[in-house]
Amino acid sequence: MDADRITEKLNILADAAKYDVSCSSSGSKRKNENKGLGNASNGICHSYTEDGRCVSLLKILLTNHCIFDCAYCVSRKSNDIKRAAFTVQEVVDLTINFYRRNYIEGLFLSSGIFKDADFTMERLVRVAKKLRLEHNFHGYIHLKSIPGASDELMNEAGLYADRLSVNLEMPTEAGLKLLAPDKSHQEMIKPMGYLKNAIIKHTEEKKLFKKAPIFAPAGQSTQVIIGATPENDNQILHSANYFYKNFKLKRVYYSGYVPVLEDSRLPALNTSVPMVRENRLYQADWLMRNYGFHVSEIVNNHQPHLDLDIDPKLSWAIRNMQEFPIDVNRADLKIILRVPGIGVLSAQKIVSARKFGKLNWEHLKRMGVSVNRAKYFITCQSKEFERRDLTGNAIKQFILATSHSKYIKNVHTQLNLF
Amino acid sequence: MTTLIYDGTFEGLLTAVFDVYAHKLDVVKLHQGEWLEGALFDEKMQVITDETRAGRVLKALKLKLSTLGVQRLYAAHLAEIPGEDNNLLGFIRYAIDTDENIEEDYGNRYVMRVSEMVRMVRREKHRMEAFIRFQKLRDGSFYAAIEPDFNVLPLLIKHFRSRYADMKWMIYDLRRKYGIYYDLHDTQFITLDFAENSRQADIVAAYTEDEGMYQNLWKNYFKSVNITSRKNTKLHVRHIPKRYWKHLTEKI
């Protein structure tokens, strides 16, 4: 390989791919077979960028040539930037050599649309196929499914990739129309529907025949850009919930819009990235997926935005003080999970440990419960507990006064925005 | 109180447990090190590591704990955190003295402490799985140097064997001066004699021609994926503490 040329390509095509926030490499069960190279199971973050995001996969575009002109995208047709394209072999060599050095868990390959959807998708599939069949590679592969590509290609992609994703980009159809006039919401959803059914079909077959091929074992994910269009958190989270429920998505990623282009339809270039809002959306997403919250408990028409100064779980709790306090020595796991300051692991520890004896504050602290928060909502084996009949608002003030938000710097500018 | 002096190995620890029961000792304290004559401790006893006795204790433990529970105990021992031996001993005695399985009794301080130690070791193991950087040598094998906080090398074998089954590799713990080597068939523990004054040039000469190119590509990639307008140094350093940087290609 010509080191200088490949370096330049890598710089251009990694730079163009970085706004895709998904970097997850977990959820697959691909094993190393026939003394080959690699496996994919739990997901490992091999490094972290200076902005604190995980680097798990070699995330690149096959090319940043694109026939579309989406306002939010650096690679849009009308943007005057350097263009480049990898050959299939170059991507394969980079992946294998990075993987052997333990830099990455695998490959995340996306692409600008050149010529048409099928032509682009075919190239992506060819990379994955070559890695799997010629190099006996069992590491993680995430491919973008290109809307409009044929079902045959989608099917082949599913056979070689661990995860497939289509980025919805805008949380609502109206938002998409405004910023990506070439794209249609319906067409973007189509491959998701096809893949959902194919995944279900293959999972059923796998149950019957052990030898049946695995098909996209890490499922599908998508990404929505936050803050480029005026949708509120209620719309965003309900739309995420819709995709979790109807398309069995593994993850929805929320990407705070980074102003990269001057366009009257978009926030100005000097707008700061809505990082707090993005963080709150992820917290809310977690509550939906792992804590048993229904989306409308978190946001609804009366509560269209997430609080920026406190997390959505605390926010829910202080709106629902009638549910508290609860006794951690008796309450169900699913109730304990709703207490601010208690995470999934400590909730499970509590339920296991209380079989042996009643728990007190000291126990809870050692189990990792953030007692500073939880103390307003629980009682335990102790005479000390919150006796004042505090209002939700008072609790919020107490908690805010004793904690330092890691975003405190940003909060003030952010609050003015929304 | 009796002070038990033992050799710091897992078998030594189990033998110490045997001695506690054999001599019906009540309040004991473990001390790692060599037996020295002298009046350092009022009452002291030397534990002579014994495979049979250790085996009997292990058998008893296996009856009381789940397989996972025994593995976790071993992982906690590997942490080699000074002064924690007594918590391990406390855990084992509590497990043996109680009829039911006590693994999840997090209200008990020994159980909780062992669980914390396991978490520390597991985290370090996971970090090594992430932060190890192999360099390709001229003979086609791959070499990585590490300096983990805890002795996690034995815990890493399974992961790296199943991942890199088609290449020879070696991971060397510079701090504890031993490594593991996989030769496409088996893994073994090895020690290396590094020449006292091996020069940097000698080391670089051992690499394949394209090693430098891939290291540079990786460094470039690492720079390219950063989004400057989202810079968050505090978070960055929390994820990759500075002590790991010297073995990370992208941070050198």
TrEMBL record, chain A:
Renumbered to this chain, the signal peptide range is none
Query: Could you tell me which CDD domains the record lists for this protein?
Result: Radical_SAM
A molecular function GO annotation: iron-sulfur cluster binding
One Pfam family name is Radical_SAM
Q: Which InterPro entries match?
A: Aldolase_TIM (IPR013785), DNA_rSAM_put (IPR023874), Endo/Exo/Phosphatase_dom_1 (IPR051675), rSAM (IPR007197), rSAM_sf (IPR058240), RuvA_2-like (IPR010994)
> Does the keyword section mention Iron?
yes
Give cofactor(s), names only.
[4Fe-4S] cluster
Q: Per UniProt, which keywords does this protein have? A: Iron, Iron-sulfur, Metal-binding, S-adenosyl-L-methionine
- Radical SAM core domain location is 61-199
Any keyword Cytoplasm? no
The protein's name is Putative DNA modification/repair radical SAM protein
Question: What species is given as this protein's source?
Answer: Mucilaginibacter achroorhodeus
User: What is the taxonomic lineage of the source species?
Assistant: Bacteria, Pseudomonadati, Bacteroidota, Sphingobacteriia, Sphingobacteriales
From TrEMBL, chain B:
A Pfam family that this protein carries is DUF4130
Q: Where is the DUF4130 domain?
A: 84-250
Q: Which InterPro entries match?
A: DNA_repair_put, DUF4130
This chain belongs to which protein, by name?
A: DNA metabolism protein
- According to its UniProt entry, this protein's organism is Mucilaginibacter achroorhodeus
